[in-house]
Amino acid sequence: MTHETIMSIISRGVWLQFGIGLLCLSAFWGCRTPETKGNSAAVDSGLVQSLQRQLNERDRRLAELTSQFHALKLIDQDLEPRTKLIRPPATLTPAGTDQHP
Questions:
Q1: How many whole angstroms separate alpha carbon 88 and alpha carbon 79?
Q2: pLDDT recorded at residue 63
Protein backbone atom coordinates (compact mmCIF):
# COMPACT_ATOMS: atom_id res chain seq x y z
CA MET A 1 0.00 0.00 0.00
CA THR A 2 1.16 3.47 -0.76
CA HIS A 3 1.24 6.39 1.59
CA GLU A 4 -1.68 8.01 -0.25
CA THR A 5 -3.85 4.91 0.07
CA ILE A 6 -3.15 4.68 3.82
CA MET A 7 -3.96 8.37 4.29
CA SER A 8 -7.19 7.92 2.30
CA ILE A 9 -8.28 5.02 4.54
CA ILE A 10 -7.39 6.97 7.71
CA SER A 11 -9.18 10.04 6.40
CA ARG A 12 -12.35 8.04 5.69
CA GLY A 13 -12.16 6.50 9.17
CA VAL A 14 -11.82 9.91 10.80
CA TRP A 15 -14.74 11.32 8.84
CA LEU A 16 -16.80 8.23 9.67
CA GLN A 17 -16.12 8.64 13.41
CA PHE A 18 -16.88 12.35 13.18
CA GLY A 19 -20.22 11.61 11.46
CA ILE A 20 -21.14 8.99 14.06
CA GLY A 21 -20.30 11.46 16.82
CA LEU A 22 -22.54 14.12 15.28
CA LEU A 23 -25.35 11.61 14.86
CA CYS A 24 -25.10 10.58 18.54
CA LEU A 25 -24.98 14.20 19.65
CA SER A 26 -28.08 15.08 17.68
CA ALA A 27 -29.88 12.00 19.04
CA PHE A 28 -29.05 12.91 22.63
CA TRP A 29 -30.03 16.52 22.03
CA GLY A 30 -33.41 15.43 20.70
CA CYS A 31 -34.01 13.21 23.74
CA ARG A 32 -34.30 16.16 26.10
CA THR A 33 -37.65 16.14 27.82
CA PRO A 34 -39.83 19.17 28.50
CA GLU A 35 -39.04 18.62 32.20
CA THR A 36 -35.38 19.22 31.49
CA LYS A 37 -36.25 22.44 29.73
CA GLY A 38 -38.57 23.39 32.62
CA ASN A 39 -35.82 22.74 35.16
CA SER A 40 -33.65 25.17 33.27
CA ALA A 41 -36.34 27.82 33.64
CA ALA A 42 -36.71 27.00 37.35
CA VAL A 43 -32.96 27.35 37.85
CA ASP A 44 -33.01 30.68 35.98
CA SER A 45 -35.93 31.86 38.12
CA GLY A 46 -34.13 30.84 41.32
CA LEU A 47 -30.99 32.59 40.17
CA VAL A 48 -32.93 35.77 39.41
CA GLN A 49 -34.58 35.68 42.85
CA SER A 50 -31.23 35.14 44.53
CA LEU A 51 -29.69 38.06 42.65
CA GLN A 52 -32.67 40.26 43.53
CA ARG A 53 -32.24 39.43 47.23
CA GLN A 54 -28.55 40.27 46.99
CA LEU A 55 -29.34 43.60 45.32
CA ASN A 56 -31.93 44.44 47.99
CA GLU A 57 -29.44 43.61 50.75
CA ARG A 58 -26.78 45.72 49.03
CA ASP A 59 -29.20 48.64 48.74
CA ARG A 60 -30.12 48.36 52.45
CA ARG A 61 -26.44 48.27 53.42
CA LEU A 62 -25.69 51.24 51.17
CA ALA A 63 -28.53 53.25 52.75
CA GLU A 64 -27.23 52.35 56.22
CA LEU A 65 -23.67 53.40 55.38
CA THR A 66 -24.90 56.63 53.78
CA SER A 67 -26.85 57.45 56.93
CA GLN A 68 -23.79 56.76 59.09
CA PHE A 69 -21.66 58.93 56.81
CA HIS A 70 -24.06 61.87 57.12
CA ALA A 71 -24.13 61.45 60.91
CA LEU A 72 -20.31 61.50 61.01
CA LYS A 73 -20.26 64.63 58.86
CA LEU A 74 -22.62 66.36 61.29
CA ILE A 75 -20.47 65.32 64.24
CA ASP A 76 -17.36 66.60 62.46
CA GLN A 77 -19.05 69.93 61.67
CA ASP A 78 -20.15 70.21 65.29
CA LEU A 79 -16.64 69.52 66.61
CA GLU A 80 -14.80 71.78 64.16
CA PRO A 81 -15.37 75.07 66.02
CA ARG A 82 -14.32 73.44 69.29
CA THR A 83 -11.04 72.14 67.88
CA LYS A 84 -10.17 75.62 66.64
CA LEU A 85 -10.53 76.95 70.18
CA ILE A 86 -8.40 74.20 71.70
CA ARG A 87 -5.43 74.61 69.35
CA PRO A 88 -2.40 76.27 70.92
CA PRO A 89 -1.26 79.62 69.56
CA ALA A 90 0.95 79.53 66.53
CA THR A 91 3.81 81.44 68.18
CA LEU A 92 5.36 79.49 70.99
CA THR A 93 8.75 80.07 72.45
CA PRO A 94 11.07 77.09 72.17
CA ALA A 95 11.56 75.18 75.42
CA GLY A 96 15.32 75.84 75.59
CA THR A 97 15.06 79.63 75.40
CA ASP A 98 13.17 80.23 78.63
CA GLN A 99 15.18 82.74 80.63
CA HIS A 100 14.90 82.22 84.34
CA PRO A 101 17.03 84.27 86.74
A1: 16
A2: 92
CA–CA separation, 58 and 50 (whole Å): 12
Helices (H), 1-101: 3-30, 34-86
Q: Is residue 67 part of a domain?
A: yes
Domains of the chain: total:
1
Range of the domain at 47: 43-85
pTM of the model: 0.41
Could you tell me if residue 73 is inside a domain? yes
> Can you tell me the distance from the alpha carbon of 100 to that of 28, in angstroms, rounded to the nearest whole number?
103
Helix (H, G, I), strand (E, B) or coil at 74: helix
CA distance 11 to 4: 10
